[in-house]
Amino acid sequence: MTTIAIQPVAQDPVDHLLEIGLKDLWYPICPSHFIGENPVSLRRLGRKLALWRDGEGKLHALEDRCPHRGAPLSQGVILGDRLSCPYHGVEVRHDGVVTRVPGSPGCKLEGSKATRHFHLEERAGAVFLYNSKESVDVPPPLVLPEQLTDDAQYASFLCYAEWKGDYRYVLDNVMDPMHGTFLHKQSHSMAEGESQARFGVRPTDHGFVFEKEGQRNVNFDWTEWADTGIHWMRLEIPYPRTGGPGGNFIIVGAFAPMTKGMTATFFWRVRKLAPGWERDTWRFLYKNRLEARHWHVLEQDRVMLEDMEPDANQHENLYQHDLGIVRLRRHMRNLAQAQLEQAAA
């Protein structure tokens, strides 16, 4: 009997880079409240990370691997801006430098920059990490849309969830306004509008808008994708007066790959309201009546995406409504290809 060895199919390097996340970009990795008094271990962007707060509450991140024997630093002790490995007490500073080796003082490990470190920012209730190709002393600024930075005009709530599936399917879902008319047709905010539409693409300074032609402020009618050093998406849903003051309901989304087949999803729910009684009214309505409805809509998306096969995008028959998805996928692949070529050069 002849035995035929089946060789594994090598993964496309462009697809692999997209799967774990493009480099030299900011990503949201967890809500702020995830990191308290003790170190936390998270798997994000193809890495295992150790995160902690020093005595002043400042956040730090190292690769969760002691340079001595690879033990998890996240199980160690916080010593201000350092972590002490639980295995042999090796102390690693927030910048990746080993400051002390208790078992062998003066050894060559002391003083070496032996662990990857990452820069963090805390904004809008979330922790953001700069996913650099290699350690950098100063990262580029984290530039978020005004809806998450202008507290004088906007009020927001962060909705965080972890979904099974590739984060690129979540991108596809948000870049598909037409699914709101069908999947969310029972929603109090997406029951209106035509079930047929044509779409167009409009460029912006930082990306593009994919929008229905001839229909605005009726349903989930458009999606914006932007690159400001972080990839984010934005859309608006018209709201009835019973939804409180503030005009259209704004959603800002950003997503990060976790382990293979898992996605960290961040959806900020926003209304344009200055501080005062109207903002207080909306925040009260949201927490007491609207939040459950919004989670119900997200749950419809989660169930749909989690039940799709991992290779669903290899068996598609796309049509005009999918122009935005095609454009975004092509752009992401171009970015990944450019990064690989730059690394090779």
TrEMBL record:
<dbReference type="Pfam" id="PF19112">
    <property type="entry name" value="VanA_C"/>
</dbReference>
<dbReference type="InterPro" id="IPR017941">
    <property type="entry name" value="Rieske_2Fe-2S"/>
</dbReference>
<keyword id="KW-0408">Iron</keyword>
<keyword id="KW-0001">2Fe-2S</keyword>
<keyword id="KW-0411">Iron-sulfur</keyword>
<keyword id="KW-0560">Oxidoreductase</keyword>
<dbReference type="Pfam" id="PF00355">
    <property type="entry name" value="Rieske"/>
</dbReference>
<protein>
    <submittedName>
        <fullName>Phenylpropionate dioxygenase-like ring-hydroxylating dioxygenase large terminal subunit</fullName>
    </submittedName>
</protein>
<dbReference type="InterPro" id="IPR036922">
    <property type="entry name" value="Rieske_2Fe-2S_sf"/>
</dbReference>
<keyword id="KW-0479">Metal-binding</keyword>
<dbReference type="InterPro" id="IPR044043">
    <property type="entry name" value="VanA_C_cat"/>
</dbReference>
<feature type="domain" description="Rieske">
    <location>
        <begin position="26"/>
        <end position="129"/>
    </location>
</feature>
<dbReference type="InterPro" id="IPR050584">
    <property type="entry name" value="Cholesterol_7-desaturase"/>
</dbReference>
